[in-house]
Specification:
Helix 13 (about 400-410) runs antiparallel to helix 14 (about 415-430). With about 600 residues, this protein is of the alpha+beta class. It is built from 21 helices and 21 strands. The chain is globular, with a radius of gyration of 26 Å. An 8-stranded mixed beta sheet has the order 1-4-5-6-7-8-9-10, covered by helices on one side. A hairpin with a 2-residue loop joins strand 11 (about 215) and strand 12.
Length: about 600
C-alpha cells in the first residue's frame, strides 16, 4: 500500500473523462467503494489488489520520471528531457491519455511532447497516442519508437481476429458490469478498459536488437528486446542517467497470462523467464527503481532484483512442471488441477493469479506444446456443443430433471458442476427459464469467490447476459487508424478472412490492380479462397476486369468508403473489362458479428 501511494502528486479535479459528445469514457471515482471493507461477494485478495490499482493520479517514480495511474487499464509514463517529455505507452484511448497529459502539465509545466515510445504491441499501450501528439507533430520531427515487429503484430492482432477478441474482451474486463461489490471490481492488471477513441501512429524508429542505445531529447536509453514474452513484440528500457528500469509488461504485480482469456497467440514462459534472467544481468545492478506499464514501481536494488527473480521463477516453474506432468501422461485439465506453486512464491502477493492464473496458464503451456487434442480417441471427434447437449439432456432424464438435480448440487456448493451440467440444458434449450436463472446464480457464486479479476468478470458477465441479454462490445480496437496501418498484403489477407467460403465454392473472379508506383496485384476468388499475387508470371490468371488507380483509391474501395459503381468516376482511375465483376467480388464477403452469443448457442 505504501509503494502504491509513494510519490503521489495529485489527481484530476473532474471525476469524469468524456469524449467530444460528452459521453463518459472513464470515471475516476467509479471504484471509490473499494475503500470500504471487503464484502462476502468478493475474494479478499482480489479486493485488496483492486484497491491498490484504484489509486489514481500523477506519481513521481524518481527524479525526472512520472507516471499517470488509474486513468485506464494501463499506466502512462513521462520522462523529462532537455526540452520536453518522452511519453511511454499513451494508454488505450485518446481521451484518457489527453487527461493524463493535462494532469502532468498542471504539476510540471506545459512541456511539449518530444518523443513517444511504445513498449509493445497491445492496444492499451498505443491506442491513446492521438491524445498526446498529432500527425503534424510527427511530421515535424517527434520520433515514435517501438520494438521491431510492433506494427505488424499490433495490426494483425487487432484486425484478423479483432472482432472475436473484442467480444471476448467484453467478458474478460467486465466493461458492461456495474461497478460495485456484486459487479466489476477490477481486472487484476488494472481496473478495466476505457471506452474512448483508439488510434495508432506508426513508429518512425525501430528498436532492432538488445543493447541498442538511443537518445531522445537528451534522454539516454538502453534497450532489451523481449519478443515472445507478454507480447510478440516487446522491449524493456534502462535509463542509465536515472538508474531506472522500465519492465514494460514483463514483470508486474500479478501472475500474467500465458494465454489471455480474450484470445491471443500462446506466450512462451520459457523464453519469458530467460529474458527476465537477462534483464537482471543487464540492468538490475545499475537500477534503483523498476517500474512497468501496469501497477506501481519497486524501489531498491535488492528489492527489485528479488522481485524480478521471483517473477522469473514463477514463469519457469509453470513451464517446467507442466512439461513434467505432460510427459507423465496428464492432460491439460488434470495438470491444471494438480499444479501447486512453491510456498516461497505463493507467499509473495505479486505471484498471485489476479490476471493470469495457474489454472489457465498451465493449460496454455499444454496447448503450446501439444495443441487441443489430449490423445484420448474419445475426444477426437466429439459432437459440437448444441448437438452434444441434446443427447446429454436426453440421457439425463430431460431438462427439468437436470435442473432439479443441479439445484441439489448448488445447495451443496458444487458450483463448478452446476455450470458444467446446466450448460448442456442451455445449449439444448436456451429459453429454459429455470436453467438460465440457476446458471446465472451459479456463475455469480463462482465470480464472487474468484481471486482472479478476469475470471470474476467472465463469470459475472455470463450471468448478466443470461439475465438481460447481450452486453455488446464497449471498446473496439479495430479503429480507422489501425485499419489504415495495414499493408496491402495484410489488407488483402483481411479480406480473404471475410470470404463466405461455401457461398463462393463455384465463384471464379479475377481482378488485376495496376497500382500507381507499385507492381500490379492480381486477386482471384476460386474454390472459395481469395488469393493475391504481386507482379506477373505463371501464377497469375487473366483478369475479368483490370483497374489502374492510386493506392488510396484501392484502399477506399476495399474498406467500403467507395462503392464499386463509383470507382470509375474518381480522378485517375481507369477500368477495362467487366466492371460488374468488382461488385461481384465484394459481394462474396461476409461481415463479422461483433455481438455473437457466448453463454447460449
Amino acid at each position: 500500500m505504501e509503494d502504491a501511494k509513494r510519490g503521489f502528486m495529485g489527481t484530476a479535479g473532474d471525476n469524469l473523462i468524456t469524449d467530444g459528445t460528452g459521453r463518459t469514457v472513464w470515471n475516476l471515482h467509479a471504484y471509490g467503494f473499494l475503500n470500504g471493507e471487503c464484502p462476502d461477494t468478493a475474494n479478499p485478495s482480489l479486493w485488496r489488489q483492486s484497491r491498490l490499482c484504484a489509486d489514481h493520479g500523477l506519481f513521481e517514480v524518481t527524479t525526472g520520471i512520472y507516471q499517470i495511474r488509474g486513468f485506464d487499464l494501463s499506466n502512462m509514463t513521462f520522462v523529462e528531457g532537455e526540452r520536453g517529455i518522452l511519453v511511454i505507452d499513451p494508454l488505450l484511448t485518446a481521451e484518457t491519455a489527453a487527461a493524463g497529459l493535462a494532469l502532468y502539465r498542471a504539476h510540471r509545466g506545459d512541456r511539449p511532447v518530444t518523443g513517444v515510445l511504445y513498449t509493445h504491441s497491445h492496444a492499451d499501450h498505443f491506442g491513446g497516442v492521438r491524445g498526446v501528439v498529432t500527425g503534424q507533430d510527427i511530421d515535424g520531427g517527434v520520433p515514435v519508437l517501438a520494438p521491431q515487429g510492433f506494427l505488424e503484430h499490433a495490426v494483425s492482432e487487432n484486425v484478423y481476429a479483432g472482432t472475436a477478441m473484442n467480444r471476448r474482451a467484453a467478458y474478460m474486463y467486465g466493461a458492461a458490469l456495474p461497478k460495485g461489490d456484486r459487479g466489476q471490481i477490477g481486472a487484476g492488471l488494472g481496473l478495466t478498459l476505457s471506452t474512448g477513441a483508439v488510434g495508432l501512429i506508426p513508429p518512425t524508429l525501430d528498436i532492432t536488437h538488445t543493447g541498442q542505445t538511443e537518445t531522445v531529447d537528451g534522454i539516454r536509453m538502453v534497450f532489451q528486446l523481449t519478443p515472445g514474452t507478454e507480447a510478440p513484440a516487446e522491449l524493456n528500457i534502462h535509463f542509465p542517467d536515472r538508474s531506472a528500469l522500465c519492465m514494460a509488461e514483463n514483470a508486474t504485480h500479478n501472475q500474467h497470462n500465458l494465454l489471455t482469456l480474450r484470445g491471443a497467440e500462446v506466450r512462451d514462459p520459457r523464453v519469458w523467464a530467460r529474458y527476465l534472467t537477462e534483464a537482471i544481468g543487464l540492468f538490475a545492478g545499475a537500477s534503483d527503481v523498476a517500474f512497468a506499464s501496469h501497477h506501481w514501481p519497486v524501489w531498491g536494488r535488492e528489492q527489485l532484483t528479488r522481485f524480478l527473480s521471483e517473477q522469473r521463477d514463477m514463469y519457469a516453474y509453470l513451464h517446467d512442471q507442466t512439461l513434467r506432468m505432460l510427459n507423465q501422461g496428464l492432460t491439460a485439465l488434470e495438470i491444471a488441477e494438480a499444479m501447486r506453486m512453491p510456498p516461497a512464491l505463493e507467499r509473495r502477493w505479486h505471484t498471485h493469479g489476479y490476471y493470469g492464473s495457474v489454472s489457465h496458464n498451465t493449460k496454455a503451456v499444454y496447448q503450446r506444446y501439444l495443441g487441443w487434442f489430449d490423445g484420448n480417441p474419445a475426444h477426437l471427434w466429439e459432437h459440437p456443443p448444441a448437438e452434444a447437449a441434446h443427447r446429454y439432456v436426453e440421457f439425463m432424464g430431460g431438462a427439468d430433471e437436470v435442473v432439479r438435480r443441479a439445484r441439489e448440487s448448488f445447495a451443496d456448493g458444487d458450483f463448478r458442476w452446476v455450470v458444467q451440467v446446466v450448460n448442456h440444458v442451455l445449449f439444448a434449450d436456451p429459453d429454459h427459464a429455470a436453467a438460465r436463472e440457476l446458471q446465472a446464480d451459479a456463475l455469480e457464486q463462482l465470480g464472487y469467490g474468484s481471486e482472479n479479476g478476469t475470471w470474476r468478470n467472465v463469470f459475472l458477465t455470463g450471468a448478466l447476459e443470461l439475465r438481460e441479454g447481450s452486453v455488446g462490445t464497449p471498446t473496439a480496437t479495430t479503429s480507422p487508424d489501425v485499419v489504415a496501418a495495414l499493408t496491402l498484403d495484410q489488407l488483402f489477407d483481411a479480406l480473404a478472412i471475410r470470404v463466405d467460403g461455401p457461398r463462393s465454392w463455384d465463384a471464379d473472379i479475377t481482378v488485376r490492380w495496376n497500382i500507381q508506383g507499385r507492381d500490379p496485384v492480381t486477386l482471384r476468388l476460386h474454390n472459395g479462397v481469395l488469393t493475391h499475387v504481386t507482379g506477373t508470371g505463371p501464377a497469375v490468371a487473366d483478369p475479368d476486369v483490370e483497374a489502374t488507380l492510386a493506392e488510396a483509391d484501392l484502399r477506399a474501395l476495399l474498406l467500403g468508403a467507395v462503392a464499386p459503381a463509383e470507382l470509375a468516376a474518381r480522378d485517375g482511375v481507369e477500368i477495362t473489362g467487366d466492371p460488374g465483376r468488382l461488385a461481384d467480388l465484394l459481394g462474396h464477403l461476409a461481415d463479422p458479428d461483433p455481438d455473437f452469443a457466448v453463454v447460449t448457442p
